[in-house]
Amino acid sequence: MNEEQRKQQETSSSQEKSTKDYSQYFETTYVPPSLKQAKKRGKEDIAIHYDFEIPVNMQQIGSGKKFLIRTYGCQMNEHDSENMAGILMNMGFVSTSIAEEADVILINTCAIRENAENKVFGELGHLKALKRDNPGLILGVCGCMSQEESVVNRILEKHQQIDLIFGTHNIHRLPELLQSAIFGKEMVVEVWSKEGDIIENMPRARKGQIQGWVNIMYGCDKFCTYCIVPYTRGKERSRRPEDIIEEVRHLARNGYKEITLLGQNVNAYGKDLADVNYGLGDLMDELHKIDIPRIRFTTSHPRDFDDHLIDVLAKGGNLVEHIHLPVQSGNNEILKLMARKYTREQYVELAGKIKQAIPNASFTTDIIVGFPNETEEQFEDTMTLVREMDYDSAFTYIYSPRDGTPAAKMQDNVPMEVKKARLKRLNELVNEQSAKKNLDYQGRVVEVLVEGESKKNPDVLSGRTRTNRLVNFRAPKSAIGQIVHVRVTEAKTWSLNGEVVEMSEVNG
Ligand code: 5AD
Ligand code: SF4
């Protein structure tokens, strides 16, 4: 069976299975997902809860036990894993990085492209052996993949080693679900397709003490035709400004040096807040006043990037001059088919406005090649746009059809070899630009937030500039978590090497 036939067989059998009623197999919770339901956008208000607590009888369930969370995908997922870790620790579990030691393993999954999903299924296969050696082990699957019917059905059919599946809207239900999984005999499945309320005070075990993620909104209403996220993450829901500001203040008081504000489409922040006229620009303006060295945000949609935000970002200070502005394609027909709701010209104009207001801003982007029926000329438009924008770097992807999205229904006449060749050409251009940009840094003194030991050499420390460039240099370990000034001595394609300079030399 070739890859195409295998996929076809898999899709048709999973479609067939989705009509099956699995509920008879379940003694406990069985709430399966539905992408169709997830697509609906209701008008009902989202309530905010400040009263999350772990029931007393569940607070010791993990006593003497260990947990491990494996996280795939974006920062949103990383941050969700911090919440889950916080919940588990409040149930008495302690964290481990060794799978063989763990009593609970949660796989927090990503659905954005097929290869992300394949990695997860590979990992589930590996976990079978662990479960065989340790039948008491609880294996859970959560995150975006668990929001897809086809995935849940495939797990039910082929991965009986899994004890628990829960969705992105069910994280606060982890104590109850885990209790059912530990004490029940059947697989526990609880995936709400419709988003729930905002739960403000979930416990959180943050990964580091230097950089912190702060959610400002959940969900996405953009429905770009290729993207699964609006289905897996629900409708746009903004947190209250005062809750966000308090969280950032709290992190500042606790010595954090950098905050990244998170949302699938942060520029839509505040649009759903009925009682206030308040957007991302207003929020950034408030955060600008907080005594914390750096504030970033991700990820932006060009459509909602307004002038007020640009004016506020131009104030600089702790608002860093790095703009991640996903473009996806440089061709207007493709942008239309993607339902991005801007043209190439509008994108370039917006970027021009930002560059004018923040002349030293670095720009990065996301690009998809090989969208259904993308012609050579249309791809060339993306190449010319990349040249014109002169990006500092770009995340580039081959289009991956996602079941249930409009683009997945489009006929596609572009062979995979052509898509791969386009990606290669695009990457060569991006790398060339990135290397050239790095050369501009040579000899300059840059401000670096020291993140830790370099991955390749523990004797070397590494950190990032305000523009998010990776810098490696030698310094005492005590510099970790500090902001230092580094003179760039060597530019590589992906990183810079340098040496720490004394503060007195900085302006000299
Ligand atoms: N195929 C390929 N890339 C995708 N992205 C989102 N959906 C898909 C898809 N179906 C990319 C977009 C987005 C980034 C997070 O992932 O470029 O900005
Ligand atoms: Fe993956 Fe997107 Fe979900 Fe993040 S939001 S986990 S990138 S699918």
Structure overview:
This protein is an alpha/beta fold and 508 residues long. It has 3 domains: 22-190, Rossmann fold, CATH 3.40.50; 204-437, pyruvate-formate lyase- activating enzyme (Alpha-Beta Horseshoe); 445-507, Beta Barrel (OB fold (Dihydrolipoamide Acetyltransferase, E2P)), CATH 2.40.50.140. The protein is built from 15 helices and 22 strands. The strands form 6 sheets. It has a 7-stranded parallel beta sheet with strand order 1-8-7-6-5-3-4, with helices on both faces. Strands 18-19-20-22-21 form a 5-stranded mixed barrel. Helix 6 (174-183) links the parallel strand 7 (164-166) and strand 8 (188-190). Helix 1 packs across helix 5, helix 9 packs parallel to helix 10 and helix 13 runs parallel beside helix 14 (416-441). The N and C termini lie far apart (67 Å). The chain binds 5'-deoxyadenosine and iron/sulfur cluster. The site of 5'-deoxyadenosine has 12 residues, from strand 16. Belongs to the methylthiotransferase family. MiaB subfamily. Its EC number is 2.8.4.3. Monomer.
